[in-house]
Amino acid sequence: MPAVSKGDGMRGLAVFISDIRNCKSKEAEIKRINKELANIRSKFKGDKALDGYSKKKYVCKLLFIFLLGHDIDFGHMEAVNLLSSNKYTEKQIGYLFISVLVNSNSELIRLINNGIKNDLSSRNPTFMCLALHCIANVGSREMAEAFAGEIPRILVAGDTMDSVKQSAALCLLRLYKTSPDLVLMGEWTSRVVHLLNDQHMGVVTAAISLITCLSQKNPDEFKTCVSLAVSRLSRIVSSASTDLQDYTYYFVPAPWLSCKLLRLLQCYPPPEDGAVKGRLVECLETILNKAQEPPKSKKVQHSNAKNAILFEAIALIIHYDSEPNLLVRACNQLGQFLQHRETNLRYLALESMCTLASSEFSHEAVKTHIETVINALKTERDVSVRQRAADLLYAMCDRSNAKQIVAEMLSYLETADYSIREEMVLKVAILAEKYAVDYSWYVDTILNLIRIAGDYVSEEVWYRVIQIVINRDDVQGYAAKTVFEALQAPACHENMVKVGGYILGEFGNLIAGDPRSSPLVQFNLLHSKFHLCSVPTRALLLSAYIKFINLFPETKSTIQEVLRSDSQIRNSDVELQQRAVEYLKLSSIASTDVLATVLEEMPPFPERESSILAKLKKKKGPGAVSSTEQEDGKREGGELNGGGERGADSTIAASNASTPSPSADLLGLRSSGPVSAAPPSAGSLLVDVFSEAGPAAPAAAVNDDGFLRDLEPPTESSDSLLAEGPGDSDSAPPSVVSEDPAPPMPQSDELLHKFVCKSNGVLFENQLLQIGVKSEYRQNLGRMYLFYGNKTSVQFVSFSTSVTYTGELQSQLNVQTKPVEPLVEGGAQVQQVINIECLTDFSDAPLLNIKFRYGGALQNLTLKLPVTVNKFFQPTEMVSHDFFQRWKQLSQPQQEAQKIFKASHGMDKEVLKGKLLGLGMALLENVDPNPENFVCAGVIQTKAQQVGCLLRLEPNAQAQSGEQMYRLTLRSSKDTVSKRLCDLLAEQF
Amino acid sequence: MIGGLFIYNHKGEVLISRVYRDDIGRNAVDAFRVNVIHARQQVRCPVTNIARTSFFHVKRSNIWLAAATKQNVNAAMVFEFLYKMCDVMTAYFGKLSEDNIKNNFVLIYELLDEILDFGYPQNSETGALKTFITQQGVKSQTKEEQSQITSQVTGQIGWRREGIKYRRNELFLDVMESVNLLMSPQGQVLSAHVSGRVVMKSYLSGMPECKFGMNDKIVIDKQGKGGSSDEAGKSGKQSIAIDDCTFNQCVRLSKFDSERSISFIPPDGEFELMRYRTTKDIILPFRVIPLVREVGRTKLEVKVVIKSNFKPSLLAQKIEVRIPTPLNTSGVQVICMKGKAKYKASENSIVWKIKRMAGMKESQISAEIELLPTNDKKKWARPPISMNFEVPFAPSGLKVRYLKVFESKLNYSDHDVIKWVRYIGRSGIYETRC
To answer: Binding positions for a 1,2-diacyl-sn-glycero-3-phospho-(1D-myo-inositol-3,4,5-trisphosphate) (chain B) (predicted)?
Structure first.
C-alpha cells in the first residue's frame, strides 16, 4: 500500500466507521465487523511487512471494534511495534491501544515496558509525555513496580521540560494512589516540595495535587510545604488580575491553584511561625475583602471562580478555628450568600455554616441568621437545600432558641419530604431532650411529634420519653394528663397508644381524681384502641390492664371480663394468650398485698447514653452530629434524668418481654435450668461462653501447660487476711460488713455441691451480683473463669477478689488468680481467670472472697471455690474382668468407703448417668451383673501421684418402708480420697 | 385476551399500535421498545414481563410484532394468533416489510379490527376476510351479496362461501417437510426429526366434501386387520408413525378422533391442511463426513465429503454446505470437485454451493485455513458444519394414498377433479459436528 501522507486522516478508518454507523441491524454490524477482522488478520499475517501508516490504521480499527464491545485477541504485537516508531501519530495510536487494551500477558508487558523506558529516556518531551500518560492510564501494579523509581527522578530533574514535569507529577500521583507501598519518596521529598516554587504555574498545580495526597499519609515529612504554600498563595492573591496572563480565568488569578493551595493548608494545623501565620491571615482577609468587591464581569464563570476560592478559604478558617475575627467575617459572608438567588450558593452556605456553628467563636454569629434559615426551610424548592437548612438549625440550636427551633421543625415536619422525615424526627426528639427546660414542654413536644409523624417515630424515641417520665416525679402527673387527652383523638398513632398504655398503667392514679378521667374512663379509652393495634402493642396494653387492677381495684371485674373473653384467653398469638391467662390468674388468686408488690411502680431507669443519639449517629449525612455535640448531649442528658437512685433494690415489677426494662436480666441466666444446657438463643454473654466451652477446651488446655509451668508458689500475703477458719462457716450472718473477708456464707457448701458434677453455671446470685463459673480441667491442671455481673445500674467501686486456702490445703493445691478491674460499671460483667494446680488429693475447697462498695456500703462475700478432687479425674475404660480384678485388689477396709442413703432426687436412670459422667469418671457399661447398678472407673491426677478409683452405685427402688435408697461404694488406693469422694457424692443423688 | 398489538420497525419506531383493552396504557409501547428492542443484551425469550404486563413478540425480517396483555392468557394462543396475523398480512400485501406496512396501514387497522374483538381472536381465514376487506375500491354490494357475506361469516362454515364455480375442478397438494439433524463426527445420529406440512390449493365448485388419506401407521394397521393379511404386510412396511399433528379448522376433528379419517370441506384457494412431526425411520438425504486436522498453531486442514442417500433418479437442488472457520483465520484456500466454494469472512465460514446432485453420489471439498497466532489461550469451539438442500421426496416417508372429492349437489365426481401431488423435502437445521 502506498504511504498516504495526508496528515492524520485515515480514509480506510473513516469509511469503516461510516459503514458501521449505516448498518441497519445488529446482525449487519456483526457481519461487517467479521469481514473487517478477517481483512486485518490477513494483513497482519507474518509474511508481509506493513508500513507504519497501515499498521496505525488497522490498530485504530481494532481499537474501534473493541470499543464497540467486541473481543479483540490480536494486534497487540503491532501496537507494540507502533510504540517504537519515531512518528508522533503512530506512537500516539500505539500508546492509545496499549492503555485501553493492555492485559497481563507477561511477555507483552515486558516489551511495552521496554518501549516506555526508551521513550522516558529520550530527550523528546512529547514522547516522554506520551509514555507518562500511558503509565498513568494503565496504572497497574506491574507498571508501578517498573517505573516508580524512575518517575520522581524525571519530576525533580533540573533539565526536564515543564510539560513533562506536569505529566510526571500527575503520573506519580496515580501510581501512589494504586500502590502506595511502591512509591517511596524518601530523598526526593524536599525537592518535590520545592516544586511549589516552580516558575511554571502548570507544574505547581500538578505538583500540589501530588503533595496534598502524599502529605495526607505522612504529614510530618511534608511540613515544610506550609510556608511555601502560604507564600505562593499570597503572591497569587495579591497579584493583579493581569499578572498571570495565561492563568487568569475571567479576571480571577489562578483559581484552581488557589483552591488547591487552600486545600493543602487544610491538611495542617495553623502555622506556628508568626510571620507565616500573619501572612496567611492577611491572604484570607484579602480573599474575604475581594468577595465584597463588585464583580469585574457579569459572566457566571467569574463569580464561580471567585466563590470557589472563597469557600475554600472559609473551609480553611473553620479548620483552623482560632481566629474569631475571621470566623465572624466568614459567617457574615455566608449570611449574605444565604439570600443569594443562586441555589448552589445557598446550599454551600448552609453546609459551611453547619460547621461554623460548632465553633465557639462563631456560634453566636451563626445564630443571628436563624430567621433566614427557618425561612429557607420553609420556602426552598430544592429538597437537598431544605435538608441542609434542617441540619443547620440542628447545629445552631442551644438553650436560648431551642423552643423556637423545635417548634419550627415540628411545623415543617408536617410538610417535609418523606426521605428526610425520620431524620427530622430524631433531631427534634434529641433537641427536645437536650435543651428541655421544663419537662411538660418536653412531653408536649414528643407527643406532638408522635401525632404529626407517628410512622417515622422509631422505638427509641418513645422508649426515651417513657424513661424520662419514669425518672422524673414532677412530670408524671402532667404526662398522664396529656397522654389521656391525646388519646381522646379519634385516630391516634400506634406509638401514641404505646406511650399512653405505659404511662396510664404506671401513673393513671395521678389523674384518677378528676371525674372526666376516672379509672373506668381511662380503661375504656385504652381498650377502644386495643383492636386497632398490632400484637406487641396489645401485649403492652394487657400489662397496662393488670396494672390498672392494682391501681384501681374497682376496675377489677371489668378487666377480668376483658381478659376472660375468648379473643384474649384463646388468642392465636401465644404471647397474648399467655399474658391473658397469667394476668387473669394473678388477679384472681393473689391477695392485694402480693399484687401490689408484683405490680409495683417501675423503678427508675439507669442512666445511659441516649439511644436516639446513637441512632442518629448511625444515619449518615454531613453535619449530623459532631463528636463534641454527642458529649454535650450525654452531659446534658445526664443532668436531665439523673434523678438519683431511688430504690434500686426494689423488685422489678412484672418484668415482661415488651417492657423496655434494661435491668431485667443482665446475664440472661435466671431462667436457665440447673444444668448448664441453657438454650443458645438466650443470647447472654455467659451462655455464649458456655456454648464454646466444648471445642475450645483442648486448645485452652494446651496453653495451660506452658502457662502453669511458671507458676510460683502461692503468695503468703493472702493468709494473714483470713481471720477465721473455714470450718465454722455457719457462724456469722452475711450482713456483717467489715474490711476483713467475711466468713463463708451458710449456703456456700450447698453451692459447692452443685458443682461436683458440672463445671459451668451460676455459682452465686443475689440482688446485686451474679457470679458465673466456667472451668476446664486437664490432668492435674485446671483453669476457672469467674464472671462477676453487676446487676444494678450503679457501678461497684473498689471491687476486689481473693482466693484463700489454708492449712494442709496449701500443700495440696496451688492456686493463682489474676487481679480484676476495681471498677464494675452498672450492668457490666468482668471476668477473672483462676489457674489451679492439684499437688495431691485434697478434701476442702479454697475460699473466694469478694469485696466491693455499692453506693458507699461495703459488701463482703465469701464463697467456696467450686474445686473438688473429682475435677481431676481421668476416665479409665476397662472391661468387666479387669474391673473386678482391681476391685478385689483394693479390698483393704481403709481403702473402701461406703454409704447407704436415701435418694433425694428420684431415680431417673438418665439423670444418674448424666451425673456420673459429669463426675469425670468413665461409666462402664455391661460390667456389673446387675444392669440396674452403675460402676465407674477413673484415675485422679495429682502432681504427686495418681490415685485409681472405682465406684459402684447400687440403687434400690423398694427398700424398707418403700423409700428409694442407694448404696454407694468407693474403693481407691488412698483412703482419704475414698472418704472424700463418698461424702461428696452422697449429696448428689 | 390480548390487550394491545404493536408493530415496530427495526429501530423500534412504532408503525402500528392498536389497543384493545383499557388496562394497556400508552406507555406499554415504550416499555417494550426500551426493554426488548433496545435492550443491551439481546432478548431471546419471546415472552417478556415488564411491570406486570406480558409481551409476546415475534420477529419477521426487520419487523417486530408484539402483543401485550395484563391477563394470564394462553401463550400458545397468542403466538398462533401472531403467526396467523403475519400470514394474513402476507396474503394481502406480500412480504412483511417496513415499507409495505407503512403503505398499507389503513388496511392493517381494518384487519386488526376484524380479527380481534376486545382482544379475543376472531375469524382469521384469509379467504373469508378477502370477501369483505378488499384492497381495491369495490362497488357497493347488493343487499343479497351483503347478507350472503354476513351469513357466511357468522355461519357454520365460515371459511367457505357458497356458490363458487370453476370450469375446471383442480386440486394441488404439496407435502412440504423440513428435516432436522444433529450428527456426531463419527456418523452417529444424536437427534433427528421431521416437521412437515400438507398445503392444499383447491379450485373446486360448490361445497365439496373431501377425504384425505395417507400412510399413517394407525390407519394402515387398522385396515390390515380388516383386509387380507397380504396387503397389510405390504403396506405395513411403508407406513409412518406420526408423533403429533394439528389440523386446519375445516377438518372434522370428531371424525378424526373416532375413525382417524381426515375429512373436510376445504376453503377456497390455498391453505394449510395439517402439520405433523415424525421422529422415527427418517430418510436422511445427505451424509456429511468431516475431517479436520490442525497442523501446528497456524494451519488447519479441513476435508468434507458429502454423500447423497436417495434414489439415483432423483435430483437434489440448492445444496449449500457451511463450514465454520476459526475466529483467527487469516487466509483460506479451497479446492472442490463440484460446485463453487468461497470463504465468507463476514460469516466466519466457508460456503460451498452445488446446484444439483443426483442420488447415491458423493462429492468432496478440501480447504487449507491459515491462522494468525493469538495470545488468547481459548480453544476454538468447533461449531458444527451445517447444510441446506431441497429434495423431491418426503424424508419422513409420508405418502398420499388418496384424496377423494364428493360433491352431491353439483354434477361432478371424484374422477373429474384434476389432482396434483408434489413432495418437497427441505433441510431445517441439518448439522454435523466436526
So the answer is: 340, 342, 344, 353, 355
d(CA A716, CA A724): 16
List, in order, residues 6 or more apart from A7 with CB less than 8 Å away.
Answer: none
Q: Write the secondary structure of A233-253 as one string of H (helix), E (strand) and C (coil).
A: HHHHHHCCCCCCHHHEECCEE
ipTM of the complex as predicted: 0.72
Q: What is the 3-state secondary structure (H, E, C) of B373-429?
A: CCCCCCCCCCCCEEEEEEECCCCCCCCEEEEEEECCCCCCCHHHCEEEEEEEEEEEE
Check residue A665 and give its pLDDT. 35
The answer to whether A813 and A843 are in contact (CB under 8 A) is no
Burial annotation A309-344 (CB, 10 A radius, 16+ → b, else e): bbbbbbbbbbbbbebeebbbbbbebbbebbeeeeee
Which of B348, B372, B375 is the best mutation test for A, with the most CBs of A within 10 A? B372
Q: Which residue has the higher pLDDT, B177 or A685?
A: B177
Q: Give A105's contacts in chain B (Cβ within 8 Å).
A: 375
The pLDDT of residue A260: 92
**Distance of alpha carbon B262 from alpha carbon A277, whole angstroms:** 106
Q: What is the pLDDT of residue B45?
A: 92
Are A791 and A769 in contact by the 8 Å Cβ rule? The answer is yes
Q: What is the 3-state secondary structure (H, E, C) of A658-686?
A: CCCCCCCCCCCCCCCCCCCCCCHHHCCHH
pLDDT, residue B275, reads 93
B377 touches chain A (CB under 8 A): no
Look-up: residue for cell 428541655?
A436
- b/e burial code for range B172-208 (CB count within 10 A of at least 16 → b): ebbbbbbbbbbbebeeeeeebbbbbbbbbebbbbbbb
Q: What burial class does residue A140 get, using C-beta atoms within 10 Å of its C-beta: 0-12 exposed, 13-18 middle, 19+ buried?
A: middle
CA distance B82 to chain A (A): 22
Distance CA B72, CA A703 (A): 68
pLDDT of A618? 67
Mean pLDDT of chain A: 77
Cross-strand pairs, A276:
none
| Position A709 pLDDT exceeds 90 | no
Q: CA B133 to CA B12: how far, in whole Å?
A: 29
Position A860: which residue type? N
Say how far apart CA A135 and CA A172 lie, in whole Å: 9
For residues B36-49, average pLDDT: 89
- CA separation for the pair B278, A816 (Å, rounded): 89
> Residues of chain A with pLDDT > 90: what percent?
5
The larger pLDDT score, comparing residue A419 to residue A27, is at A27
What is the per-residue pLDDT for A649? 36
Task: Name the residue in chain B with its Cα closest to that of A30.
Answer: B346
* Distance of residue B378 Cα from the nearest chain A Cα, in angstroms: 10
CB-nearest to B329 from A32, A38, A105 is A38
The full length of chain A comes to 989
What mean pLDDT is reported for chain B?
88
Please tell me the pTM assigned to this model: 0.56
Query: Chain A: nearest CA to B377, how far in angstroms?
Result: 10
Distance CA A916, CA A933 (A): 12
- Rounded (10°) angle between helices A519-530 and A494-507: 150
Q: For residue A182, with 0-12 CB atoms within 10 Å meaning exposed, 13-18 middle and 19 or more buried, which class applies?
A: middle
Q: Which residues of A touch B (CB under 8 A)?
A: 24-26, 31-32, 34-35, 37-39, 41-42, 44-45, 73-74, 76, 103, 105, 107-108
What grid cell was written down for B276? 405433523
Between A459 and B142, name the one with better pLDDT: A459
Q: Which residues of chain B does A32 touch, with a Cβ-Cβ cutoff of 8 Å?
A: 346
Type of residue found at A47: D
Grid coordinates of A956: 434400690
pLDDT at A733: 41
CB B352 within 8 A of CB B339: yes
